[in-house]
Design brief:
The chain is α/β, with parallel strands linked by helices and 325 residues long. It has eleven helices and 14 strands. It has helices spanning 50-57, 81-90, 108-118, 125-138, 155-167, 185-202, 213-219, 237-242, 247-254, 261-266, 299-302, and strands at residues 6-19, 22-35, 39-43, 65-70, 73-74, 91-94, 173-177, 205-210, 222-227, 230-236, 269-272, 282-287, 290-294, 320-324. The strands form three sheets. An eight-stranded mixed sheet has the order 6-7-8-3-9-10-13-12, with helices on both faces. A four-stranded antiparallel sheet has the order 2-1-4-5, covered by helices on one side. Strand 1 and strand 2 (22-35) form a beta hairpin. It is globular and about 65 Å long. Bound molecules: adenosine-5'-triphosphate (ATP). Residues 8-253 form the ABC transporter domain. One of its GO terms (molecular function) is ATP binding. It holds the Pfam family oligo_HPY.
């Protein structure tokens, strides 16, 4: 893919939470860029630090270490109410839980118009109403939904409201934090298709956070795989799926159900156990644009690829420790 210019850059980001006497390294020195017009997928299993990364980018948390650049500006150096307000407009978030993220006490109209009001984007009440109606249509609902409450809508419709609310302020970047995980599979595809359509029409950029690799593959141009707070592999989506270089990526791919019962019955699941990385472990560019987290001496091992579903004894990778059906 021919990427646009860099919109977001995350550099050496670290987020450490204090949990009692223990320090939890939720995000542990990660770096990546998101380019205009692309969908950058951030995937990994629960607890790997994906949501914390998204929340730190929108500044819900102050980073423990590292830098976040938006349109080339280091957010730590962003000064003035106006510039912060612009940042809060430019970067929007769509949440995982369409049930919990919409205020049940106010009508959909007010939920969608919140950002329009905060940022003074409507000339008058009529213009505000027209904008709300237009946004509802954009996300596949009708203007009549403005008079309803969120509990009167289905999960998919609620997620559409979440998308309309984000679109209302014409953002440059939307952080989609597991936007489909709480939905039925058939609805998931509809929401992903809607996001893709909106991206084409409005030149949107997405940071798409998910644990469901099959949908991430479908929507993302590039993907970073997170494991225990670190990015262990980063590359073009197609390449990463065709030939994953990091064993953790392979184990994630092996857990995607394949729509063939016979294949499923005989396939092996790969489980990943983290090796003891040395101090020098870091992202290495193994092929152009494709990075893998490992110590320098381990790099050649990753170049031994094997077919998905192969038994462990067939693999040369030392980190695929067991197989289970
Ligand atoms: N505010 C917090 N205080 C303490 N620990 C936290 C906090 N937020 C997250 N964590 C911990 O940080 C780690 C990463 O959490 P995070 O929610 O970012 O993971 P995730 O990959 O998004 O998982 P999930 O999909 O389940 O939300 C977890 O161990 C979590 O318990």
């Amino acid at each position: 893919m021919d990427h646009g210019s860099e919109l977001l850059r995350v550099e050496g980001l670290q987020q450490i939470f204090q949990s009692g006497s223990k320090a939890v390294r939720a995000v542990d020195d990660i770096s990546f860029s998101v380019f205009r017009g692309e969908t950058f997928g951030l995937v990994g299993e629960s607890g790997c630090g994906k949501s914390t990364t998204g929340r730190t980018i929108i500044q819900l948390y102050k980073p423990s270490n590292g830098k976040i650049y938006f349109e080339g500006t280091d957010l730590a150096s962003l000064r003035g109410k106006k510039r912060w307000q612009q940042f809060r407009r430019d970067v929007q978030m769509i949440y995982q839980d369409p049930y919990g993220s919409l205020n049940p006490r106010i009508k959909i109209r007010e939920i969608i118009a919140e950002g329009i009001d905060v940022h003074g984007l409507a000339r008058n009440a009529k213009d505000r109403e027209l904008q709300v109606a237009g946004l509802l249509e954009t996300v596949g609902l009708n203007p009549e939904h403005a008079n309803r409450y969120s509990h009167e809508l289905s999960g998919g419709q609620r997620q559409r409201i979440g998308i309309a609310r984000a679109l209302a302020v014409q953002p440059k970047l939307i952080i989609c934090d597991e936007p489909i995980s709480a939905l039925d599979v058939s609805i998931q595809a509809q929401i992903v298709n809607l996001l893709k359509k909106l991206q084409r029409e409005k030149q949107l950029t997405y940071l798409f956070i998910a644990h469901d690799l099959s949908m991430v593959k479908y929507i993302s141009n590039r993907i970073a795989v997170m494991y225990q707070g670190k990015i262990v592999e980063l590359g073009e989506a197609k390449e990463l799926y065709r030939s994953p270089l990091h064993p953790y990526t392979e184990s994630l791919l092996s857990s995607i159900p394949y729509p063939d019962p016979d294949f499923e019955k005989h396939r092996n699941r790969l489980l990943y156990k983290q090796p003891a990385h040395t101090e020098e472990s870091k992202l290495h560019e193994v092929v152009p644009g494709h990075f893998v987290f490992c110590a320098p001496s381990e790099v050649p091992l990753y170049q031994t690829k094997h077919e998905l579903g192969a038994t462990v004894s067939n693999t040369a990778s030392p980190f695929l420790v067991s197989a289970a059906n």
